[in-house]
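Journal club prep — side note

Before the paper discussion, L.F. wants everyone to see what a predicted structure for a comparable chain looks like in token form. Sequence:
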Amino acid sequence: MIVSHAHRFIYIKTKKTASSSIEAALSTLCGPDDVITPASEEIVREFAGERKAQNFRLRHPLVPKRPLIKRILMRPERYYHPSIGFYEHMPAWRVRAYLGEAVWSSYFKFTFERNPWDRQVSWYRFKTRKLDEKPSFADFMANTRRAHVDNYELYAIDGAVAMDFVGAYERLDADFAQVLERLGLAGRAALPSLNQTSKPHGYRSYYDDRLRDLVGEWYAREVAAFGYAF
């Protein structure tokens, strides 16, 4: 997640939408006072000119307190935990609460989304990439808590999309260029390739009718909002 006071934009980082690449590119535009959150995954960041995580710690009455048991045991805090302040996949409602209505309403807010049937396969491969024995896609999908991708909850407030612009993963380069143009930064940043999970087959090959319909039910809001289809 990035908040750029220098260029007056807020980027909400979603999952499996080339978000690490987008974040890396945007960070090259940031100034010393802008917010860049750390990434929870170990991503090799060798993109020339990229700023590292900065200004994400926050003292604010709405920042949740660290659980007492962790304070007693002196366990180190994960830097992307909500109790730090700003964190990686931070929902729009919390960003607005921390920044205040004046900043939220006056900055350009954007994110990126992806066809949920394609995104689900990418999520499955990402979550099982380190397993010696990978579950089948159907078995993975049987655990809703593990399998569900909460992107819509990240960029919606009270059930409605709260962004000024939602780019499409399927039009990544063109839509990212459109974002830069709207910010008056055309041509100032380029997308690197980061944190990719290989996908040897088209996503449709992973589905039977039941799983296709299940994903349609899980992500009905994305399908309705952006017109996605299997």
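L.F.'s comment for the group: The longest helix spans residues 116-127. Keep this in mind when we get to the figures.
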